[in-house]
Amino acid sequence: MASYNLVRMRKMEFSKLNKKNNDSFSFYWGRKSADTIKQIIDSHPKNNLSILDPFLGSGTTLYGSLKSRKNISFIGVELNEMPIQQIKFNLNNLNPDLLEQMSKDVEYFIAKIEKLYSYNIGKLQISIEKVYLNKDNKIMDPICFDIVLDGIKSKLDSQHPLFVKLSELYLKRNINFSKKITKVYLDENTRIAIKKDMYLSDIYSPLNFYILEQYKLEFQENSEMIFLLSTILHSCKYTDTKYQSQYPYWFPKKNLVDRNVLMILDKKMKSLIQFSSKNQIFKENMNTNYELHNKSILDISNQDISDASIDVIITDPPYYDQIAYSEYLKIWEYFTKYKSDLEKEIVVSNRKNGEKNIENYLKMIRNAFTILEKKLKNNGKMYIFFKDTDLKKLSLFLESVEKSGFKLTDSFYVSTKK
Predict the structure, then answer these.
(1) What is the pLDDT of residues 77-89, one digit of tens each?
(2) Nearest-angstrom CA–CA distance, 348 and 304
(3) What is the DSSP letter of 398?
(4) CA 251 from chain center: how many Å?
(5) Residue 254 pairs with which residues in a beta bridge?
(6) pTM score over 0.85
(7) What angle separates helix 261-278 from helix 223-230, to the nearest 10 degrees?
């Protein structure tokens, strides 16, 4: 019987560029750090290891393998396409010539579009950086603007003599662009804030949605620029003032923020250039060979991964309804064409046209881990990352794992404090 360890995480985090997480340049949901993965790998007595992550996500397990000094054959399996594309970009495409061309493409697009954020009031030209709004039903009511006037940044609130006129112009422009954008219907799921008769464009201002569609059309054959787009889509929607954009279909009714897409794009491109100059992945280890499979672990065959071939499985599996990965990724699918798979996702969901209950989830988990048990060598070990305080859910989850042929040998806690 194969053994497994539980690694408990306290809270959900994001794979994003910051001082404590510079392993990849991407946007995705994740709980574990590459340094934690490296510690697990380095603790293994063997120097030559085959490692599998069947729910690869943002690729943290792969990045942790790259950080290790061991000789590693790594296999990653991921149902949805976006994280696979982002991993490939991070590992294959960061070179100065490419980044220079991307920077020029960004500058070109900004110059072409930036007038859409400018408003003329008399002889004054005002550029909008942010708009703060309240929402009453479907009516947006501006309460403050972050602007640039005569090269000077300032706030323009309801006490300012230009506020009423700028509000009128802003709302009028958005009404006009609401007639030019594509209406993409969303499948109702109140659990993740998708309401009845809701469209994808509802989570963006009409102007921002239009600009994102123009970017999509402009660069649809440019995989690198589409990758860049994938890293900013969550930031371009309505958010709250603290930038809590991790719940893609949600935004507040009070004090929501509409941001300038071009500023976000420009900042992200500059961050990518900075990141590429400091990226240490290739400098740290070239002893890791890796292969990626863009499919469900339930569809993995013996040709993909031979039975009894894996030393260690390290994974953060889908956990009930915590993150509706494929449903969230419908946003990215529309703008980038990165495919997401609702049918084969292992999840609990109350999506109107594709509900998946707990029984279905546990059955799929059991089937997945039955496959994984076959892939492990006789003395192989599995590490499962999880986050939950619901003991009943955890018990049912572990029961499904153990019915697959695994035995719990240890559990330990890893802090995710930044």
Answers:
(1) 999 999 999 999 8
(2) 27
(3) H
(4) 17
(5) none
(6) yes
(7) 110
